[in-house]
Design goal:
six-stranded mixed beta sheet
Length: 218
């Protein structure tokens, strides 16, 4: 009797749903979860005080942006002035070049996920210190990666490459190769800011992007 009532309640509940029996879309449910989990990280760390960058002139914490279900993720070094002002990663000069690269791959920024090793602007755009990188990647970047679980992460420049693969990975040698990181493929390439100074290296980056496109299709 008890079970019958439970079943009736269940069917009544299903009937009330706009999509009837389809209401419980497991995939959609999963997607909502990823988005919510990323939101939780933002709430937890929006006033982060865990490393010296919190008190070295940052305006705001710049979290990753894009599709929580992205198959492809880009990781840079840290926000610059424009990013700090707007709270969005990669929107300055280097960011515009990254956007062009993404579009040349026939993606949009909304389809991929874009993040950084450190989420606060280092003063005068200096390199993040090992302490800052270590703290921030453990608290935020690694969690973003765990939630999104992309197929491929493209690390932009030495800082991101070494943050994920280790200090022994020099960008000149590792660029364009796939490495495994907790079941995710990592491919280092040059940072777009480097490309602005060395346009000749654009062809190398394009080779790397073609490898990514091919791998995503496999
Ligand atoms: N350079 C980076 O590494 N990240 C940004 O968000 C902007 C510039």
């Amino acid at each position: 009797m008890k079970n019958k009532t439970k079943l009736e309640n269940y069917f009544n509940f299903i009937k009330q749903q706009p999509n009837g029996f389809l209401y419980y879309d497991k995939k959609k449910h999963h997607k909502i979860n990823k988005k919510e989990k990323l939101e939780k990280i933002k709430i937890k760390y929006e006033k982060c005080q865990n490393c010296p960058l919190a008190n070295l002139g940052r305006i705001q914490v710049v979290f990753g942006q894009g599709n929580p279900n992205a198959k492809l993720m880009f990781v840079g070094e840290g926000p610059g002035r424009d990013e700090d002002l707007k709270g969005v990663p990669f929107i300055g000069r280097a960011g515009k070049l990254l956007t062009k690269i993404i579009q040349a791959m026939k993606f949009t920024r909304q389809e991929v996920y874009i993040s950084n090793v450190v989420k606060c602007r280092p003063p005068n755009n200096r390199l993040p210190t090992p302490e800052e990188s270590q703290t921030c990647k453990n608290l935020i970047l690694f969690n973003e990666i765990k939630i999104i679980k992309p197929k491929i992460i493209c690390t932009l420049g030495a800082c991101a490459t070494q943050a994920l693969l280790g200090d022994e990975f020099k960008i000149s040698k590792s660029r364009g190769n796939f490495y495994e990181f907790h079941g995710i493929l990592i491919i280092p390439t040059f940072h777009p800011a480097y490309l602005l100074r060395n346009p000749n290296a654009k062809k190398d980056v394009w080779k790397d992007m073609k490898k990514i496109i091919k791998k995503l299709d496999e």
